[in-house]
């Protein structure tokens, strides 16, 4: 999506983005353009396991491409599907 057509540098842009992870697709990447030097905030609103989730520990991590520690993902959430 070309965000430059939607706003100027002084405007705020909110883009809805979603993903579904599974045994086949184990990661998702939120891409921004390389030449985009603006500050970005990424808000995660909801994380949940589906009924098809396997009975194992699930970890959601984020990794910033401009991080002070490149290659070091930050764990946000762990989830384990249990039947009570």
Describe the structure.
It comes from Umbra pygmaea. The chain is mainly beta and 84 residues long. The protein has no helices and two strands. It is globular, with a radius of gyration of 16 Å.
What sequence of helices (H) and strands (E) makes up the elements?
EE
Count of β-strands:
2
Largest sheet: 2 strands, antiparallel
The shape, in one word, is globular
Question: Level of helix content?
Answer: under 10%
β content, as a range?
15-25%
Total helical segments:
0
Q: Enumerate the spans where pLDDT stays under 50 for 5 or more consecutive residues.
A: none
Kindly provide the radius of gyration, computed on alpha-carbon positions and rounded to a whole number of angstroms: 16 Å
Average pLDDT for all residues: 73
Overall structural class, as computed from helix and strand content, comes to: mainly beta
Distance between the termini: 43 Å
Order of strands across the widest beta sheet? 1-2
InterPro entries: Nucleoplasmin_core_dom, Nucleoplasmin_core_dom_sf
Pfam families: Nucleoplasmin
Organism: Umbra pygmaea
Domain Nucleoplasmin core: 16-64
